[in-house]
Design a protein that fits this description.
The structure holds two protein chains of two kinds.
Chain A (H helix, E strand, L loop, with lengths): L4 E2 L2 E5 L19 H6 L4 H7 L3 H10 L12 H5 L9 E7 L8 H8 L1 H15 L1 E8 L4 H16 L15 E6 L9 H8 L24 E5 H13 L1 H5 L9 E8 L5 E6 L5 H6 L13 E5 L19 H6 L8 E6 L4 H15 L5 H18 L7 H12 L29 H23 L14
Parallel strand pairs in A: 3-4, 3-6, 4-5, 7-10
Antiparallel strand pairs in A: 1-2, 7-8, 9-10
Helix pairs in contact in A: 2-6, 2-9, 3-6, 5-6, 5-7, 6-9, 13-14, 13-16, 14-15, 14-16, 15-16
Chain B lengths: L5 H11 L9 H12 L4 H11 L3 H8 L13 E6 L2 H5 L2 H12 L12 E6 L11 E3 L2 E3 L4 H12 L38 H12 L1
Parallel strand pairs in B: 1-2
Antiparallel strand pairs in B: 1-3, 3-4
Helix pairs in contact in B: 1-2, 2-3, 3-4
Classes of the chains: A alpha/beta, B alpha+beta.
């Protein structure tokens, strides 16, 4: 096993940077209550209970804890959106991690469930949330076992439930398992799913979940990594948190770097200051592209993100500059593709994902993603027709009208279109399917054209598969 | 085929009691039915509808949306091979072909002996450990073709007791002792802020 990897935590790579959320990962019993308490676990909760709820909320707001699920909205601000005087309020934890390339939340749930539970409790205390639902992705059996065990132990120890640590603070944390649907990672779809319905997103605005959410009541939906940061912030203070990372993106962030690198893995790095180059080429991190190959393109923020290229390597891992350059940092998933990668195949594979995962609520996405996949499939199979590339872009334009966010291409004198895209759909799933298409065609159009045969007769095999 | 057993009805009641609205328990109960029978039987769905005070059609509606619920008998071992982008780059599709060849079924199919079902699956969140597959949602990171063949032999020989049959997810269930339960109240019966918040605001007003 290569240096930096830990046997009991496959995929996690230990580096020498600051550790906020992964500090316990080095221990092979990091998921137990004993280890958690021996290493400062639930001290944030104790510190929190000594303060007023308003003070706890202010501390998190002051820390500028940006949401780690994809949108990057500050958690402290989101917490402030609950309307006054409307009760009850709920907390829903989004552990339905399924964005292609992403898997930081699974590690946090498997390896340090107590840190997450503690974060949930602090949020509930600060905002007066009367019940917490921990929604874990269905396919993550180990995470479910570890969280169930952690909750059972925490209930026994009086850390969750009635009169927590002898105070008047009482809250139940309920473990809930999903059943395999990417769209449920969208917060309103998550709420629908938690209500026992088909996981289809709700129309927003005007009403966001913080105002009208679970059972029509104010609901805070936070990502697992976001809440896992909260205990550290309360234990150490917002000032200490802001000493890490950049001014606008404090703290650390977990990134999963996969694909054609020498040492793929999940890294916790300083947020906003580390660059893509540091992460991909740094000796302390991925150590560069595998031998004998060059970087062709990379996905900076999960399957939904437009692709980046060599010239974007020096951008910092920070939402704003990445957005201005035409992509998004998303869920912290970086997929590296070297020069052996077929751009058409990569594009097809990502688009197929969205076609399969479209929930079917909005017509442009339900029909459009399917058409995108079919057209790409026939181009890939060598049965493409002369107008297919334009048709593909036209279908994409029906889902996301107007200029789609895309990185600049200096060789063609094309400027970047900043994030986010426009959409004719309720949620961003449909528009996400356009990202690989526009990115790939803008940069590698000749690869697509080369696949489309020039024929004078109709091929009899077309349409098979 | 079958309704929930007496023991599972008790478990179902406990699960339902954790939610302010009964219908929220649908997905956990569908998992329970799948754990009992290996798939979600029609009678089990009708039974769940009775337990949650919804119509059977609503249960079918929810069940049919989610990929993990199988409404027909499936293999004892569900082999999900990830072929999404990160795995595709590092041999995910070749792994799927190998799995299909080894087991003698195309993805979506079940072996004649009912032991294995193969699926061409989407991202299972193990992207840096590509190529990766799951057997009954247990991970096998960076698995080689030879290692897969060994795994199949072990599963057929009954040597992998760490992998429960299809339907069982987490083998540990959450259990909240009655004395420790903070209390579940339907949303329309809650009036006013929770006690710790009200007390804190009272103190702030007095101070």
């Amino acid at each position: 096993m290569a240096e930096g990897y830990i046997t009991h935590a496959p995929g996690y790579v230990l580096n020498d940077g600051p550790k906020i959320v992964t500090s316990r990962f080095v221990h092979d019993d990091s998921f137990t209550l004993t280890r958690s308490r021996a290493t400062g676990g639930y001290q944030g909760l104790e510190a929190c209970l000594a303060k007023s709820p308003a003070e706890v909320h202010d501390e998190v707001r002051e820390a500028v804890l940006l949401g780690r699920g994809g949108a990057g909205f500050p958690a402290g601000t989101k917490w402030g959106f609950c309307p006054e005087g409307v009760w009850p309020r709920y907390l829903v934890v989004n552990g339905d991690e399924s964005e292609p390339g992403t898997y930081k939340d699974r590690l946090l749930m498997e390896l340090d469930p107590h840190q997450l539970i503690e974060g949930c409790l602090i949020a509930c205390y600060a905002l007066g949330l009367s019940q917490c639902f921990l929604y874990v992705r269905g396919e993550m059996a180990l995470a479910q076992e570890r969280i169930a065990t952690a909750l059972n132990d925490a209930y026994d120890a009086g850390l969750v439930g009635k009169n927590i640590l002898g105070t008047d603070f009482s809250v139940d944390v309920v473990l809930h398992w999903g059943a395999g649907a990417y769209i449920v990672g969208e917060e309103t779809a998550l709420i629908e799913s938690l209500e026992g319905n088909r996981g289809m997103p709700r129309l927003k605005p005007p009403f966001f979940p913080a105002a009208i959410g679970l059972y029509g009541k104010p609901t805070i939906v936070n990502n697992v990594e976001t809440l896992s940061n909260v205990p550290w912030i309360i234990s150490n203070g917002a000032e200490a948190y802001k000493r890490h990372g950049s001014e606008s993106s404090p703290g650390t962030r977990m990134f999963a770097v996969s694909g054609h690198v020498k040492r793929p893995g999940v890294y916790e790095v300083e947020h906003g200051v580390t660059t893509f180059r540091d992460l991909i080429y740094g000796d302390n991190h991925c150590q560069g592209i595998r031998d004998g190959h060059q970087l062709k393109m990379f996905i900076p923020g999960g399957g939904s993100a437009p692709w980046f290229f060599e010239e974007h390597l020096d951008l910092p891992l920070e939402a704003r500059p990445v957005g201005a350059a035409g992509s998004m940092l998303g869920s912290g998933a970086i997929v590296i593709m070297d020069d052996s990668t077929d751009a058409v195949q990569a594009c097809l594979r990502v688009v197929r994902f969205f076609a399969r995962e479209s929930c079917g609520k909005c017509t442009p996405c339900r029909e459009g993603t399917t058409w995108e996949e079919q057209i790409l499939r026939r181009i890939y199979d060598g049965h493409g027709r002369p107008g297919d590339i334009d048709m593909l872009l036209d279908v994409a334009d029906n889902i996301s009208p107007g200029p789609y966010p895309v990185a600049a291409d200096e060789s063609q004198g094309l400027e970047a279109v900043p994030f986010p895209p426009k959409q004719t759909t309720i949620c961003p799933l449909g528009p996400s399917s356009v990202a690989p298409i526009v990115s790939a065609i803008r940069r590698f159009r000749p690869e697509f054209e080369a696949r489309i045969p020039v024929r004078t007769t109709i091929p009899v095999s077309a349409g098979q598969r | 085929m079958s309704r929930l057993s007496h023991q599972n009805v008790e478990l179902a009641q406990e699960i339902i009691s954790r939610y302010p609205i009964k219908k929220s328990a649908l997905i956990p109960l569908l998992h329970l039915a799948q754990e009992q029978d290996g798939y979600v039987a029609d009678d089990a769905m009708a039974h769940i509808a009775e337990l949650c005070d919804v119509t059977p059609a609503e249960v079918v509606g929810t069940c049919s949306f989610y990929e993990m619920f199988k409404r027909h008998p499936t293999g004892t071992y569900l082999v999900n091979v990830c072929t999404n982008i990160s795995c595709m780059l590092l041999g995910g599709e070749e792994l799927l072909r190998h799995v299909e060849d080894t087991l003698g079924v195309r993805h979506g199919g079940t072996t004649d002996d009912g032991a294995f079902t193969v699926e061409d699956y989407e991202c299972i969140a193990a992207c840096t450990e590509a190529p990766c597959l799951q057997v009954n949602y247990r991970y096998f990171p960076r698995i080689t073709h030879d290692e897969f063949d060994e795994l199949v032999a072990d599963l057929r020989a009954g040597k992998r007791t760490d992998i429960p049959p299809h339907g069982t997810l987490g083998r540990v269930r959450q259990h909240i002792p009655a004395a420790k339960l903070a209390g579940v109240v339907p949303p329309d019966q809650v009036d006013g802020a929770p006690v710790w918040l009200a007390n804190s605001e009272g103190e702030a007003a007095n101070g």
